[in-house]
Amino acid sequence: MTPAITSPISQQQVHQWHSAFLQLNQARLECTRSLMSSRQQIVLDVLPLLLHLNHQQLPGFIDHQVPCGIAHYNASAQQLQSLQSIARGVQPPRGFSNRQITGLYLMGSVGSLAQARSSDLDVWLCYDESLDNGQLAALAKKCQLIERWAESQNVELHFFLMNLSDFRRGQSQSAQGEDCGSTQHLLLLDEFYRSTLWLAGCQPRWWLIPNNEERNAEAFWQGLVHHHRVNADHWLDFGAIPSIPPAEFVGAGLWQLNKGLSDPYKSLLKLLLTRHYASQYPRIRPLCWDLKDQVHRGLVDVESNDAYLLMLTRLTAQLQSEGSDVRIQLARRAFYYKAKLPMSELSTTQQNSWRASVMRQLCNSWGWNEHDFYELDQRPQWSPVRIARERNALISEMLSSYRFLAGFSQKYAPRLHISKGDLQVLGNRLYAAFDTRPGKIISINPGISPSLGQEKLSLNLHKNVWQLIPGQFRRNEADPTAAADREQVLKQSPSLVELLCFARMNDLLQSHTRIALYPQHNPLSTYELKEVLQAVRALQPYAPQVEDFRHPSRPLQWHLLVNVGVDPQHQLSRRGMQKISNRDDALGYSAARENLIHTIDLVSINSWGEWLVERFSGEAAMLQCLQQMLQYLPQTKHFDWPAMNIQCHCATRASAIRIRVEQLLDDVLRHFSDQPRSPYLIEAAETYYLLENSRDGVQLRIADSPMKLLALLQRPLSQFTPYILDRAALHSSPLRLIFEQSRSGLWQLFYWRKDERLYFYFLDEKGALLHQQWPDSTNSSQWLLPLVRFLRQLDQRWQQQSGRTQPRKLMLFELRRKAQSYEFEMVRRRLPELSAQSASIDLRAVLDAQQQPTLYCNNLEFSPWQFGSDLYREVAAEVRKLRSRHEDYPLCLSDVLVPDSLSIIEHLQVKQRLESRLNQAMADNNP
């Protein structure tokens, strides 16, 4: 049963509304034509005829089987005249019955204040839904041919083939424009209704439905049909807009942010409108309702119904309610640039146009004057400092809107109508473009100015911070060392490379750009500046593809610039001298072991197109840089190491420094690729650096003395881990030879006699190293026998616990320096016979959970609870009683039991600590 309405509107009312919309439509078409050249006007005029007919003389002709014929279309005299100008003699046949195209519409900026001569024509073509796939393909091909012809006539034309049934269900894939997609179906429809121009065919029935009936649109329309107020065959249903689902705001906002990367002014207004709609949720009033209300009241002039003016009026009211004059001015600037009407440079024709008249009235109401117009129209010549400020204002507004929409999404739209993949791509693109962090090179010109190229750039060094100044540096003559005026400085950083990369990425640095250095006496030489500039100019940006944003970013290129503006031997260089040495390791140069690598600037270009500059300075600069690069280690399972380029142009030993850095990078990166679990030891000057891989990434441990290094090396290990030494590390130390002997499962003893001292090293089965030293004694029984007894005792106990069938192998080596050399050699020595590996006094220690020792001397117990602070004195006294009077040698433990530990290193450390306490007690009580 057909639904009826209780109080149908009158036929006169329907006619009045219809006439009003037709008047507005005609006025908009006239405005559209007024901005077109004669050739562009002809394209607009003949557009319906090209689709209405299949004629071999017309652009787009394929054959007579292509769908054609526009419903209820009769060409106007003007259209027929234009048709003759492109195909003389062609006339539409009388009684033409094909109606396979149901409607033709323009949408966008045409006919509005925002239209410019360069505005493209977006045409929605609605077709008979009974067409099969082959017919649709032929129609699409014809549209492509017409687009190419229009391009030859200096018109950018785009067709969007619309299946209205799919469109109403939100399936707008047929509209393949940037503003389309299921993420913003009703927002797109809102824009269509407020900006559409009807060209031919059926008209949108939305024009005849009052706003208060939007939520009941179908029933209202059926009532009009039922009461014969309309002929349904002449109207098309694009859908009503009773409300807008929250997910659309988030999807549309992300798309606008994405588009804003290249044209922020254009996207800003739509982004603000999306945010405004979201703030109204759930009681949303679309802008197209404002248009319909005005037209239903008989207000049909172009200015009052301009789609962009309606938007700006609504946005201004919203921003005023939020009390943000800065944001209002930004929105007005965006509107001004969208209109593409430079008020200070208008031609005579433009000055007399309706657009200029409307814009002048509008700007006057804002308080703008000729000076404001001139400044805005000089945007292509804005200084980089001015552009950077404008960029920051635009990005701040975009990020603020993003945060608002993100919060809105969490509250109202947890399930977005956008694929996770697309959402990830958009989010990553926004992060790459908008995220700021130390060292990241940002683009300050997202479509604000056509070029930032500078004739001259000034670089000023003030208190170890470089300042980048476009143009001439205006120095303070009274104080030449003073910092530059903040209004002059575009960017500043301790890293000169960061500033030059910034200039390079933002195209300030051109082939003809001259660079001026301040102050006059500068650590950066003209030669070095030239070389560094050449290196920076040679950097190759990476243009990321969509697929790149589906994955985390990864570095693709590494460029290391060493000692930029630094002379590692400046004290000598100032006097015209340089130190010469046959020891040319840049990390330990000459006998003084100088580290010549003072600074490194690491430039990284990644798969998201980002540039990052990280500066490392000081004695550990090379190692900190290595540590940072090694954070990429987990990704080398799937990708190669990034391409690398190393440069050094400093005044001293530049070539040797570059070669050493290349060698070190090659050695370290290859090592961690092949043996990621093995620590890598590097010696620089008189400091030792240990790079270790862990779950938290590669860690850098620093030891500034040999004893601190030994403390690092004696840490117990969970599995066999050989230490790998850099090619220049520990050349004059026995440790190099010891670590070359490291073998899994072995216990190895090394000793070295020097200056009446005995240096003892123990390398356990997992690669940990323990070092001790004592006064030398020619009697090996005083140190070797007790140590071997101790090791055998522990091994026997652990062998029984683990069920091993064989004792652990123990090896003994003596270390000696080679004749007239700093290098070491080792000699295998025999271990004491088993018969000698037992002691007459059995002294053992057992630690409890609190690490408190209970000592046993020939099974006699001495506990801390029994003797307190006198524990060690009592044990020493007992040992003295058991010895012969003439015996005086260090007291040694034959066994130690440490709870919950199977580390021989930990047991040896406990042994050493307890023996020290016992021997001190023995010495204190010596009669």
Structural commentary:
It holds the Pfam family Adenyl_cycl_N. GO terms for molecular function: adenylate cyclase activity. It comes from Thalassolituus pacificus. One of its GO terms (biological process) is cAMP biosynthetic process. This is Class I adenylate cyclase. By secondary structure, the chain is α/β, with parallel strands linked by helices. The protein folds into six domains: about 10-235, no CATH class; about 345-375, no CATH class; about 455-520, 2-Layer Sandwich (Nucleotidyltransferase, domain 5); about 525-540 and about 555-705, no CATH class; about 725-835; about 840-925. The chain is built from 28 helices and 28 strands. It has a five-stranded mixed sheet. A five-stranded mixed sheet has the order 22-21-20-23-24, sandwiched between helices. Strand 21 and strand 22 (about 770-775) form a beta hairpin. Helix 8 runs antiparallel to helix 9 (about 265-280), helix 8 (about 245-260) crosses helix 17 and helix 18 (about 495-505) packs across helix 19 (about 525-535).
